[in-house]
Every structure is written in structure tokens, then in C-alpha cells.
Amino acid sequence: MKPHQKRVLTERKQLRERLDGLKSFIAESDVFPTLGAVEQEQLHAQASVMQTYDDILCRRIAAFDNPVASLDDCLAALKWAQENLGKRTRPDPVDKVLSANA
Prior knowledge:
The chain is mostly helical. The protein has one domain (3-90). The chain contains 4 helices and no strands. It has helices at 3-28, 37-62, 71-83, 93-100.
């Protein structure tokens, strides 16, 4: 794996951690419901943009010609995220790539 590809994998892993944390905060925090409507809306918008960013990184990783991070794996992960928005953990094919290339 090329150095820039490893950086993209690391970037996506960090983004997923932040996005999962934000989704958890929105879905499970006692603080979120106490925030004003504008701030809640901004946090939802932030999560949406972060998800789009993640989708792009996932497509880039699938294009690395890496059989572990295939487009089908990415699409399955995205479908899972859509169906389980706000849950803390999810299987992530990129984690397999990171551990295999550590």
C-alpha cells in the first residue's frame, strides 16, 4: 500500500471516530435535547456533511484496488449506517485494512 493510501485510511478512521461520537451525542446525550433548535440543526448538518466526507473517502479506498475494502464492502457499511444511524458501533471494512497493514 502506498503512503498516501495509508494516510487516507488513517484519515477515514479518525473521521469515523469523530462522526460516531457526534451521532452518539445526538442520539444518546442528555445534553443534546437541552440545546437550542438552531444548534441542534447545526449539529445534524455537521453530521450529514461528515457522512458525505466519509462516503467519499470510502469510495477512494475502494478504488485502491484493495480486495478487503471493496466497493461492495463500502456500500454495505453505508447501508448499515443508514439503517442504524446513531448507534455507537458498526462493522467497518476499513478497520480490516488498517489492522492488516499495521
